[in-house]
Amino acid sequence: MPEIRVTPLGAGQDVGRSCILVSIAGKNVMLDCGMHMGFNDDRRFPDFSYITQNGRLTDFLDCVIISHFHLDHCGALPYFSEMVGYDGPIYMTHPTQAICPILLEDYRKIAVDKKGEANFFTSQMIKDCMKKVVAVHLHQTVQVDDELEIKAYYAGHVLGAAMFQIKVGSESVVYTGDYNMTPDRHLGAAWIDKCRPNLLITESTYATTIRDSKRCRERDFLKKVHETVERGGKVLIPVFALGRAQELCILLETFWERMNLKVPIYFSTGLTEKANHYYKLFITWTNQKIRKTFVQRNMFEFKHIKAFDRAFADNPGPMVVFATPGMLHAGQSLQIFRKWAGNEKNMVIMPGYCVQGTVGHKILSGQRKLEMEGRQVLEVKMQVEYMSFSAHADAKGIMQLVGQAEPESVLLVHGEAKKMEFLRQKIEQEFRVSCYMPANGETVTLPTSPSIPVGISLGLLKREMAQGLLSEAKKPRLLHGTLIMKDSNFRLVSSEQALKELGLAEHQLRFTCRVHLQDTRKEQEMALRVYSHLKSTLKDHCVQHLPDGSVTVESILIQAAAHSEDPGTKVLLVSWTYQDEELGSFLTALLKKGLPQTPS
Amino acid sequence: MSAQREAAPPLARSPRPPHRLAAGSWAPEVTVAMESAEDWLVESLRLYQDFHAFDLSAATRGLEWIGDKGVFVAGYESLKKNEILHLILPPRLSVKENQGLFPERDFKVCHGGFSDRAVLELKHVPDTRLLVTSGLPGCYLRVWRVAEDSDVIKAISTIAVQDEAGGLWPRLAVFSSAPRVLHGARLSSLQVLDPESGETTYSSGISDSEELSSLQVLDGDTFAFCCASGRLGLVDTRQPWAPLESPGQSPGSGGQRWCAEVRAGGSGPGPCFSSLGADGQLRLLDARDLCHPMSSVQCAVSMPSPSPELLRVTWAPGLDNCLAISGFDGTVQVYDVTSWEGVGSQVEPLFTHRGHIFLEEGEGHAAALVTTHTWHPSKPRTLLSAASDASVHVWDWVDPRAAC
């Protein structure tokens, strides 16, 4: 069936839960399996009942692809594979495979231990789920089965994030996931080749955003840090082990150097070890600059940034500390937070989204009194800043990506079609592509025209060329031949060759028609008159008068004979082969009208 | 603290360590440009309270507020389809408290529409969902409606307006008391239009065809005009044409182009005109005596404006005696007019925004020129500025005198 079907799963129009079903040439692929962080009940999971009402999903899906480790793209994966049931392959890049389980486990701990949720996936489920993962490299074509293949492209955004091309035969779809078109300090920009997919699937929010420049975001961060340390305060920056932390360290290091600042900056050692470990594994995923620095020296041998010791937290005076975990839900960052929260000169900068139930989430919601263990109430007087360093594409970025990939159509998820008329027009006009915007649960069907390659035999090609010059090289041309389909192979050969190959004898089908005409002249004269008539009427055809008295028009034979019983009636026998049916019928009809009365 | 000098040479740099901010390998010229950008950003930490920089897909000559949370911008390319966009400012610029808890720093495109002609003037009709634009080619007004249930800005009517000599487009000003638009390319073609009915409710009715450069509505019955020659006037629409006005510029002043803005309210018994000329002259005039300027100064611009049509002078709605000028180069200058008097003195700006020069992307292009600027209606020191390289900045400058 030459069509591609796309359905974003789940109820409501909310952004925050990516899970898209694609049906291409009979293969079913699930793109991402994210969690909606805003809900505490089943609404946080995509609606898998769309695929099947009951039973395991293994038979209905050929594979699952995860674009990157953010929870709104992989948070529902263990639930999907272990609680709903799926045993097929799950594809993701190597860094994603390494980092996903850590985030999922963190998330699980928070949900179960902190919020006391029942019916949540267990640690074992996370492990079992990850066993089904097949890791892929960038630009590596992976055969899922003998028809379906996938390929990952660099997406920027976070470590290991990829855009995926899904291909069956000549039909393909590209899913961007989250991506970024401008390089930042530790990651490069997304890139894709001119793969010309039938469809490019991306986020509608990108298209309606115009992003503040990266420099201004960095400026804001530096300003907040600088102001805090200038007044003698301490800055806590909770980070996850990878990615953003490096970015911010490089930024601070450069700034400290330029401004000749002496305030100490610390990086907790747990972070350093983990980060170094991951960077060694995934060095190819970072940008050129980081790779060079890593080769020259250890990632964390900054001039101004030192390893942290928990005792330092009690030191007087200003300092900046990077500590894990990122959502302030446990561990060192929470410890430091408790020590510093009571002083309004201090500041905590949260660099990312925090899951409900964590201290991070609470303070970002504006809560200033927190209940800690043992009923202790912590008053938060320190300044709380929420900064987003996540690099996402925007309207300009989408256009750039569409320009690179050159898809036939674009599909935007998480938008409302009737509210986005201008946007659709803009994309359609700028790139002459169709633009679709399905709602969650709504299916978009794209007709495609698959191209089927057919080999043509040399003999047939030569014959066609002999018949007329191929003057207009790129124009379609009508051929007569026989299509032989054998073992998924298509060949076009001449009829004679086909018969020979198939071991069949050629049969000819010949029609003969009798036309009765009233004419007293002799047969030869009759034939001559027929010849003259046809010659003058059928200027485009080859009309010949043969020595035996018969007339030929191309390969059609006309013979004049006398009627056996009535000498005044002549019978014209018109004979043609099956291939000349059209001309034969035409001739017959023409002759039935009679011959013109010409003077002999 | 001394006021800043305009067009200062690049800030002196201390020797840099090999550790560069720029990623990847760059040609040396570009590295230098990047470094000044970085230097400027570090400087900006103390110059600005807040600063946002955006890149539109096409440059705009309009920054028109709708309420205090959104602005309209529109392209002005002559041979392309231009976009008119309704942008919503990032929430952190609108909230009064807890700004720090709003991480989003981006514009959202709320509505958009297409114009087949360059949009040179753009005004929102207050309390309606209507926009009025004018531009080239042709002398016309176009009325647009901003949809409620979708993201479309749709053209609903085009009104041709006569222009004898051609090549001009009508200036626009809107009334807030009733949905009416004041328009005209010349004094003779000044009219007031009801954009919904298309009916003209007022005409200047005079034959003087002097070219207009600024129009401004002061209240339900009064508007001010400034001609390109510098001639200023206040008109009462209830009377036949008899404006309070200044004479046109005396021949000695070099025939430069002028624009003007009247300060609404403020201290002083009558409206105060500020009139800016293409060579940097700025005059302050009391509406009761337009023949004798209260003061006339020379602004700190290094050369006359290369595009006098882009000249713009605006009074700060939230600060006493402050105004901003642009249209000479890639800067916006803020002046405090409190102690100005007499004729001919040189004045220094209180603050100069150089972001459009230092953050210019791309090498080898002509230097960016600020096409327009506007003050935030409620945040006293916040401005928006747009430049010819399609950049739009939102900046909240620190008053250099505050620290002293």
Automatic annotation (TrEMBL), chain A:
| A Pfam family reported for this protein in Swiss-Prot or TrEMBL | Lactamase_B_6
**Organism expressing this protein natively:** Chinchilla lanigera (Long-tailed chinchilla)
List each copy of the Metallo-beta-lactamase domain by range. 16-233
**Name of the protein in its database record:** Integrator complex subunit 11
- Does Zinc appear among the keywords? yes
**CC terms in the record's Gene Ontology section:** cytoplasm; integrator complex
Q: Which GO terms describe its biological process?
A: RNA polymerase II transcription initiation surveillance; snRNA processing
Subunit info here reads:
Component of the Integrator complex, composed of core subunits INTS1, INTS2, INTS3, INTS4, INTS5, INTS6, INTS7, INTS8, INTS9/RC74, INTS10, INTS11/CPSF3L, INTS12, INTS13, INTS14 and INTS15. The core complex associates with protein phosphatase 2A subunits PPP2CA and PPP2R1A, to form the Integrator-PP2A (INTAC) complex. INTS11 is part of the RNA endonuclease subcomplex, composed of INTS4, INTS9, INTS11 and inositol hexakisphosphate (InsP6). Interacts with WDR73; interaction is required for the assembly of the RNA endonuclease subcomplex in the cytoplasm.
> Gene3D superfamilies under this entry?
3.40.50.10890, Ribonuclease Z/Hydroxyacylglutathione hydrolase-like
UniProtKB/TrEMBL annotation, chain B:
Q: Where is the composition biased (Low complexity)?
A: 1-14
Task: Cite the SUPFAM superfamilies for this sequence.
Answer: WD40 repeat-like
- Stored SMART domains: WD40
Q: Which domain of life is it from?
A: Eukaryota
Where are the stretches annotated Disordered?
1-22
**InterPro entries according to UniProt:** WD40/YVTN_repeat-like_dom_sf (IPR015943), WD40_repeat_dom_sf (IPR036322), WD40_rpt (IPR001680), Wdr73 (IPR042795)
Q: What's an example GO BP annotation here?
A: nucleus organization
Pfam families referenced in this protein's UniProt entry, alphabetically: WD40
- GO cellular component terms, semicolon-separated: cleavage furrow; cytosol; spindle pole
Give one GO molecular function term: protein-macromolecule adaptor activity
What name has this protein been given in UniProt? WD repeat domain 73
